[in-house]
Amino acid sequence: MLPLMIDMKNKQVVIVGGGKIALRRLRLLKEEGAHLTVVSPQVNDEIKNLAASGKIVWKKKEVCTEDIKQAFLIIAATNDPNINEWIAGQVSGHQLINVVHKAEIGNVQVPKIVKKGKLIFSVSTSGASPLLAKEFSEKFASLIDKDIEKKLEEYHQYREQLKSSNLSEEERKKALKQKLDLDKL
Predict the structure, then answer these.
(1) What share of the chain is helix, strand, coil (3-state, %, to 5)?
(2) Spatial distance between the Cα atoms of 177 and 21, rounded to a whole number of angstroms
C-alpha cells in the first residue's frame, strides 16, 4: 500500500451500511467535503438526522450494482461479510473500495488520521491492529504542541510570500530553510 493524501472535496462516495463503522467513515468524509450517499435498509439516528437535514443522501434499501456505479470511493461497511465481498467484486478498475471487515480485498485502507492545524499525519498497521494504530497516533499527537501548529502556519504564510517574490528558487529554498530552523522545533 502507498499512503496518499487525496482531496475528497465534491467526490462521489457511497457508504453501504448504517452502523458505527459506517458513521465513522461518513464523519471523516463529510469533513473533507465529499458528496455522500448511504445505502442501507437501516441506519443509526445520526445518519437519519444527516439525511433528514439534506446533508447526505440515504437510500433506504439493499445495495445493488447501480448504487455504486458512479462512486469514486465505496465503503463496504455492512455487518454481513458476504455483502461486503460482493460489493468489492462489483467495483471497476477506476474506483476505490474500502472493505471494513477484510481490508485486503479492497484497494484502499483508511488509517487513523490526526489533524493539528496544517499538520496531518496518519498511522496504519495495514489492518493488523486498528487499536494499536489509534494508540500510537494518540501518543504521537500528544507530543505536538500549539507552538508547532503556530510555527507551521507562520511558515506557510512566509512560503506563500516567497513564491510571489523575485528571488531565485535557490534563494527561496535558503530563506525557507532559515525560517523553518528545525533546531527550534
Answers:
(1) 45, 15, 40
(2) 42
Q: What is the pLDDT of residue 69?
A: 95
For residue 3, being part of any structural domain is answered with: no
Return the number of other C-beta atoms located less than 10 Å from residue 119's C-beta.
Answer: 13
Question: How many degrees, rounded to 5, is the angle at CA 123 between CA 142 and CA 13?
Answer: 120
Verdict on whether the full-model pTM lies above 0.85: no
Cα 27 from Cα 16, distance rounded (Å)? 14
| Dist. CA 155–CA 118, nearest whole Å | 11
Q: Please count the residues of the chain.
A: 185
Determine the average pLDDT of the residues in 69-88: 97
Range of the domain at 170: 146-184
Position 101 in a domain:
yes
How distant, in Å, are the alpha carbons of 38, 50, 98, 181 from that of 83? 15, 24, 13, 52
